[in-house]
Amino acid sequence: MTTVAAYAAPHAKAPLERTTIERRPVGEFDVLIDIKFAGICHSDIHQARDGWGEGIFPMVPGHEIAGIVAETGSGVTRFKVGDRVGVGCMVDSCGRCDACRTGREQHCAEGNTQTYNALDRSGRPTYGGYSTHIVVRDAFVVSIPEGIALDEAAPLLCAGITTYSPLKRWGVGPGKKVAVVGLGGLGHMAVKIAHTLGAEVTVLSQTLRKKDDGLKLGADHYYATGDPTTFEELAGTFDVILSTVSAPLDFGAYLGLLRTEGTLVNVGAPEEPISLNLFSLIGGDKAIAGSMIGGIAETQEMLDFCAVHGLGAEIEVIEASQVNEAYERVLASDVRYRFVIDTATI
Asked: Most distant CA pair in the chain: distance in Å?
């Protein structure tokens, strides 16, 4: 075991504080990563504050990890010391079920092993990227192409794949009209990716406060959902609506913005349940769908796509000691658009 520095929540709702954790020895098919940057995802806040329940404490959050390979196991052939690599939301799966065999490890029948706030297959708690080093199975490590800076790449390991996967799956591209609900950490990447895929992109946000940003990121239109006329003006407009927000919405109202046979895809994960009048779905043969990150191969595909098109996250790099302040700013929507921890400051 190796002792490394980290930032952890000692118990639910407690401020994060500097500590040390133990990382397992590098096994035959393991990669030791010297973490350089770790993104702050809204789900880190949900879990550190036990908003989804069943938290394992002390908890080291962080599933947007970018770094450099420091050591490899004897059986590792895909990576070598010095490679630029990333780790996202999961670090293991059974490898045998239908989902795993078809590259959808996130839907592993036995449950994928989350990068943090989980138990690994030996029963030990997993600790995330708010730390200096991590040991991960090589099958769950991806390459970060040279075309993306490591700090701008880190958020792609969650925010990037979480938006890329549904946009590709629901055929967003030329001739399609897509709306992105929320211009935050996920939403800003959704706008960039949808625009690059060739779709006509509209941002739906509570206010017009970020309109200039949205248009610069690639949106063609920007509307305030706080204005009731928005839902009248845009009725029946979109092929796909991608909701990226972590708050419950009036889904009936948003379904009214879809064209016939349109789909509202939800990637946000509110703590509260929602209610829905099913006539909102039946009229127009509409659908509500969900999407959860993506498999490892698709995550690599996303990174390669972003590198080719020069897409990185819009970030604010912070020192580790600023993490609690950053959490409060995320909750206040005071970040443009992803905080990234410089792990050299841990």
From this structure: 62
